[in-house]
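call fold(seq) -> tokens
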Amino acid sequence: MRTEPYAHSSGLRLLIRQHPNLQGVEKARLALDEMRVGADSFPETFLRLAMRDAGLPEPELQLPLNLEDPWSPTADLGYRRFRIAIQYDGRHHLSREQQSRDNRRDEAFLSAGWSYFKVNADDLAEGFAGVISRIRSVKLRAL
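ret:
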């Protein structure tokens, strides 16, 4: 599980202050407060923000199945409390090698009794509305 950011917010804030007229700097300034360690792609971040905007709690990122096992499979995001794991499958998940790793990860979560959601570009195109509805339904059943 990755706990160190690729970039630190203090360095990014300094960069923004040093380049106040750079195109996109205002959006970057606003985005700093939305940064979380663990998101590995833009779609994962878009999904997290859509979940939050839909009233779901902030999900954990790079959620390991077993906290005591450093080699435990991880989901991109989810809720340990509700045993919900969510994986965003981008293009790199199409290779045979990645699919083999994904299958082992998927089976581990499902065998442990977690609700498991695989999300892709079609879900992104609809603003994640369908998957958010399904997550909300599972979350309510877990309460």
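The longest helix spans residues 96-111.
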